[in-house]
Amino acid sequence: MLTILQEEQFEDLYQLIEESFPSDEYRPYQTQRALLSHPNYQIYVYKKDHELAAFFAAWKGPHFIFLEHFAVKASFRNGGLGSKLLQVFLKQQKKPIVLEIEPPEGEIEKRRASFYERNGFILSQWGYFQPALAKEQSPVSLVLMSYPEPLKEQEYQSFKNWVFKHVYS
């Protein structure tokens, strides 16, 4: 069901990233492409009818998996595919999962938080500003969610130190 991204699928992947995320929340094309060779970074894809329908971009941390990006193509949304794929992804992981979302203040952000909560994630009280990923981008306010257990303060500190050193460096 979920397979590892092949390099020839990168164009379709990057198009889905651009369609799914605000520009401040993803890397420029060449920087994103360069991550494909990073040993702790993995992109899992789901194809339906020979089309890239969804993907997960994840980092392997020392004690957790950081789910950096997850998106379902607009034409495949609202049919339960996102929840189904997320459950498959969660079952494949051996470590707790941490992800970032924008603070659930607006309607879209509240719906996103609810989606993850329905799928077993717990909204934490902790967050930070993701640094700008490129010169023309801005920092983004984010809060953390975790699966399957609530994030403890010590785990938050460990995660934050790791993510700023290895992902946002």
Task: Please count the helical segments.
Answer: 5
Instruction: Determine and state the CATH class.
Output: Alpha Beta
The separation of the N and C termini measures: 33 Å
> Secondary-structure element sequence?
EHHEEEHEHEEH
> Main β-sheet: number of strands, strand sense, barrel status?
7 strands, mixed
Could you name the ranges where pLDDT drops below 50 across 5 or more consecutive residues? none
What's the total count of β strands?
7
**Mean pLDDT level:** 97
Identify the overall geometry: globular
CATH architecture: 3-Layer(aba) Sandwich
| Assembly state (oligomeric) | single chain
State Rg: 15 Å
Fourth-tier CATH superfamily name: Gcn5-related N-acetyltransferase (GNAT)
Structural class of the helices, strands and pairings?
Answer: alpha+beta
Strand order of the largest sheet: 1-2-3-4-5-7-6
Q: How many individual domains? A: 1
CATH topology: Aminopeptidase
Strand proportion, as a percent range, falls in: 25-35%
Helix content: 25-40%
Notes on the structure:
The protein is of the alpha+beta class and 169 residues long. It has helices spanning 10-20, 29-34, 81-92, 107-118, 153-166; strands at 3-4, 41-48, 51-60, 65-72, 97-101, 122-130, 140-147. It has one domain (3-166): Gcn5-related N-acetyltransferase (GNAT) (Aminopeptidase, 3-Layer(aba) Sandwich), CATH 3.40.630. The protein contains five helices and seven strands. A seven-stranded mixed sheet has the order 1-2-3-4-5-7-6, sandwiched between helices. The radius of gyration is 15 Å and the shape is globular. The mean pLDDT is 97.
